[in-house]
Design brief:
alpha+beta, Jelly Rolls, 8-stranded mixed sheet, 11 strands, binds fe (ii) ion, Kdo_hydroxlase, 3-deoxy-D-manno-oct-2-ulosonic acid (Kdo) hydroxylase
């Protein structure tokens, strides 16, 4: 089954638990009409990229919300930082209102401003995000957490953000699990000791990294796997578990993104997590 896109009008009557249920089942929630206004001064952030060009994105992290990768005058950089802080609050409010069962357990991580078009330079296949994949972070093991992301298209010219979405995680995992290399607890401990990773890479993290790579490397799968094109228009906000939903970013520029973490144990149905799906397919608990 291909991941469904579920449109959620702002005034949706709250049907307890239905949206979290859909998300956990692999849907993308699309909110067509949430407000996130820009001031006259802030319009410039969608006229041209305020980025130093060294990294893909500009972002803030942590309580201090230190801005990284930005360009512009000190006044402009502070204004951009405030946009990102406001977007983080917007994402928090979205969770509180539409996913109230997650409110207490969710933690917000980085917030990013993405002014550049999807990179179609001949990147290495591993960094090519036009290829269908699930998200996994090489240096930042996440263990028993889920990756929940809130995106918003802020393009000023009507240009959509174009995605592909793929088949459900379980069907994908069935095809790829047999090809993945075994996990070594010893090398996981070494990588943590050498600070190659920020924490010990669990077997789940190991599997997800190798899944990410195996998926992107498989040209035949990329071309022929079940998939659908999706367009997200300016003013639209979309939310998904990006560790579960197969996706590729095909085009579009000027976007805001918030990453959040949710413990598997805080899900309505922990069995629907990639952690439990992989364990189930392997017929054992993960190390
Ligand atoms: Fe991704």
């Amino acid at each position: 089954m291909i991941s469904p896109i579920l449109t959620v009008p702002r005034e949706r009557p709250t049907e307890s638990g239905a949206l979290a249920e859909a998300l956990e089942g692999g849907a993308v929630l699309m909110f067509p009409d949430l407000d996130f206004p820009f001031s006259d001064f802030e319009q410039r952030f969608t006229d041209r990229p305020f980025a130093d060009g060294k990294a893909k994105n500009v972002n803030i992290r942590g309580e201090a919300a230190h801005l990284r990768g930005a360009a512009g005058t000190p006044e402009e950089q502070e204004a951009l930082r405030q946009v990102l802080i406001r977007y983080r609050q917007f994402a928090r409010a979205l969770v509180d209102r539409y996913l109230p069962e997650y409110t207490r357990a969710v933690t917000l991580a980085g917030t990013s401003y993405r002014p550049f078009d999807v990179d179609r330079r001949k990147l290495s296949w591993r960094r090519d995000d036009t290829r269908l994949h699930v998200d996994a972070f090489p240096s930042n093991p996440i263990g028993e957490k889920r990756i929940l992301r809130v995106f918003r298209n802020i393009n000023p010219d009507g240009q959509p953000r174009r995605w592909r979405v793929g088949e459900d995680f379980g069907s994908m995992a069935e095809k790829f699990l047999p090809r993945l290399p075994g996990y070594s607890p010893l090398s996981a401990r070494l990588m943590a000791a050498l600070r190659i990773t920020k924490a010990r890479r669990s077997e789940y993290d190991h599997l997800m990294l190798h899944l990410h790579d195996a998926l992107k490397q498989d040209e035949a799968y990329q071309a022929s796997a079940p998939q659908a094109n999706v367009e997200f228009y300016p003013g639209q906000t979309w939310v998904t578990f990006s560790d579960l939903v197969m996706h590729g970013a095909m085009g579009g520029r000027y976007m805001l993104e918030q990453t959040a973490y949710l413990p598997v144990s805080a899900q309505a149905h922990p069995d629907k997590s990639p952690q439990r799906i992989l364990a189930h397919k392997l017929g054992r608990t993960l190390q």
